[in-house]
Amino acid sequence: MKIAISGKGGSGKTTISATLTRILARRGLPVLAIDGDPNPNLIQALGLGPGVEAEAVPRSVVERREDEAGQARHVLTTTIEDIVSQYGLKAPDGVTVLVGTRVDHAGAG
Questions:
Q1: Tens digits of residue pLDDT in 9-40
Q2: Between the CA of residue 68 and those of 72, 73, 75, 77, what are the distances in Å?
Q3: 77: which DSSP letter?
Q4: pTM metric for this prediction
């Protein structure tokens, strides 16, 4: 099962995501939560203490390649298992969390 939560800023996406992931994990389901917000706070919402930070998954885990038909595709350069083992953090209730992005610096939009 894959669930994505989106919405406008301040609508409670992080709170809903954290609650849902912990409920599913408590029911015995394996849960991988990915925080794709440029201002990631899911780690704290899942119950990891203040000051706990995850290393963001680098963009180098995906590269653009052309298939036989010449169509551009984005493909992983490593396995999901390797990504989770290297960048994942264990949160309460058995949830594993990844930080999918982080703003490194301001730039032109």
A1: 888 999 999 999 999 999 999 999 999 888 88
A2: 10, 11, 14, 18
A3: S
A4: 0.80
